[in-house]
From TrEMBL:
Positions of the Hemerythrin-like domain: 14-121
Organism in which the protein naturally occurs: Parathalassolituus penaei
Keyword field: Iron, Metal-binding, Oxygen transport, Transport
Annotated NCBIfam families: hemeryth_dom (TIGR02481)
Name by which UniProt lists this protein: Hemerythrin family protein
Domain of life from the UniProt record: Bacteria
MF term (GO), any: metal ion binding
PROSITE patterns (UniProt xref): HEMERYTHRINS
InterPro entries noted in UniProt: Haemerythrin_Fe_BS (IPR016131), Hemerythrin (IPR050669), Hemerythrin-like (IPR012312), Hemerythrin-like_sf (IPR035938), Hemerythrin_metal-bd (IPR012827)
Lineage: Bacteria, Pseudomonadati, Pseudomonadota, Gammaproteobacteria, Oceanospirillales
SUPFAM superfamilies recorded: Hemerythrin-like (SSF47188)
């Protein structure tokens, strides 16, 4: 299970709050899979949250004229495609082991890397006060 306290905070409170929700939703998918339950609902909820979170970040980046916006947005799109592919594969074959591997290894590894690089830099830039309309 992912532990929110194991990850560094970034300089934007809305991002930290949404990251905490992300971790809780990842953990819900993992718990469903470990309990032998279908993870369709929990995985769909996770993906819905990620779409909303990325849209929130992107709105803030655009409002601040964040120079590396295209790179950050491109990474968001890559991960959304990956999540959509995971959902489609799970719907098709209900392979709990494959989804569990993704949820417990691949996704946390990506999150740690993304948080420590793109989100850290983005939050620092946004916290300089350039994008205050999007902080909530």
């Amino acid at each position: 299970m992912m532990d929110f306290n194991a990850y560094p905070l970034v300089d934007m409170p809305f991002m930290n709050e949404e990251h905490a929700e992300f971790i809780a939703l990842v953990n819900a998918v993992e718990q469903d899979l470990r309990d032998g339950k279908s993870a369709l609902v929990s995985l769909s909820s996770l993906i819905e949250h990620v779409y909303a979170h990325f849209a929130h970040e992107e709105k803030a980046m655009l409002a601040a004229s964040f120079p590396p916006y295209p790179v950050h947005k491109s990474e968001h799109e890559r991960v959304l495609n990956l999540l959509d592919d995971q959902l489609a594969a799970y719907r098709q074959n209900l392979d709990a082991d494959a989804l569990l591997a993704f949820i417990t290894a691949d996704l946390p590894d990506w999150f740690e890397q993304h948080l420590g690089t793109m989100d850290r830099v983005t939050a620092r830039y946004l916290s300089a006060g350039v994008a205050t309309p999007c902080h909530g």
